[in-house]
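To whoever picks this up:

The nightly regression suite flagged Arylsulfatase as changed. Nothing in the input moved, so I suspect the structure step. Input below, exactly as stored in the fixture:
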Amino acid sequence: MKLNHKSLRNMKLSVFILLVCFSSSLRSQAQDKPNIILIFVDDLGYGDLGCYGSPTIETPHIDRMASEGIRFTSFYAAAVCGPSRAQLMTGSYHSRVSHSFNELPESQYGLHSNETTIPELLKTAGYKTMHIGKWHLGDAPEFLPTRQGFDKFFGFPYSHDMWPYHCNTTVKDLKDTALMQQILERADEVGYTVGGEWSFPPLPLMEDEEVIELNPDQVQMTTRFTEKAIEFIENNSRQPFFLYLAHTMPHTPLFASDKFKGKSDRGLYGDAIMEVDWSCGQIIEKLKELGIDNNTLVVFSSDNGPTPKYGTDGGSAGPLRGAKGSLYEGGIRVPAIFRWTGNILGGRRTNAMASTIDLLPTFAHLAGAEIPGDRIIDGTNLSSLLMGKKETSPHRFLHYFGGSQAKAPANYRAIRDDKWKMFLKNNSSGELAPLELYNLEKDPSEKYDKLKQHPEISNRLLKEAEIFYAELEKNKRPVGELNSNTK
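Regenerated output under the current build:
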């Protein structure tokens, strides 16, 4: 059959229209999946942001995010860094994934490869993924972010200091003798000192799985992390992406670039937070510039409460009792802001209980990804709460656990419902026993123990805790261990 010029022209036009329609359909499908940016800062206290009542630290960009989104006042993380990141990535309590400790350099342990992480789930829905900043879930190659669902990684495999001070700190340089003793005891415990000095290996800055610098200038790291984040956003603005930006600030030791040093009323600590705030502003501005602001969910939170004060360093938990490492509210209740222009009504505040374990199921729901059915995920989908369809928490209870590097020992635990919080521990005979009981509705500062006055409340919470802990032990999953961590 011969085709005349008119028929050929019509056929080409039809093919072109089909291709345009197909391309538009794909683009529409991609746009139905929101980009997701998770900004996770280190050791930020509940009272360290303007929108959470800080009188001394100005955070205009984060405050604007809160005014344009929803701000949580009962949002929880784990008490210390590594466990917090484990439950963030897996949607499961850190005790369920056997990750109740902080990894040190050259650790034999990390997040198990059998765990399904946020980026792994989102990749099944067509997302590009990148982690920038602090990982702290294992530094051996098999534990790195690129083995856990991230296409790209730029940052540190563990903490930039290895608690409590940077690896170059010499104990004899410290004036505080009590602090010196703490450091020496901690150093002896983990076996990382020689003659009173830290002997951690040099801090590695990595790109994917390659070390690109040793002991980089940390004064510039917030800026460098921000530049990498913007580069990733620019390169992936036409497809759904997940960016996990985990700043190392304001974890001690503190650093701020020259453009922020000396700018706050809270010294270097406030300067560091002001620079993180600037970083948030840069990211929001880039989203607007690229025209993808309305299709991007931005979440801001912290891994735990503020560092206990070492000299002038350390943050504020505001009205809350305790700090990092504690199961009191100041150690585990953290700021949390969700901003998604056009989807989340701005200027809202909620006291509904929520947690970092809820991010995985929430992100999966928004992306249309399927959560694995072969394991227990402790988190729940927050989307109805975020969109204003519900006002109450999807949780009946939240649970909190001590750990090897928390001030609360591993056998200390706590359980909370919408009003009451109870501390528990195993007694000498191994039985679970109530310790303290607080009415968080009336006493968020946990000043007044009501255990003796309300045995009916403590008995109810004890029964719920016993049921949960029995299930937890039955369905606990292993931590990753070198030479035994296989899919």
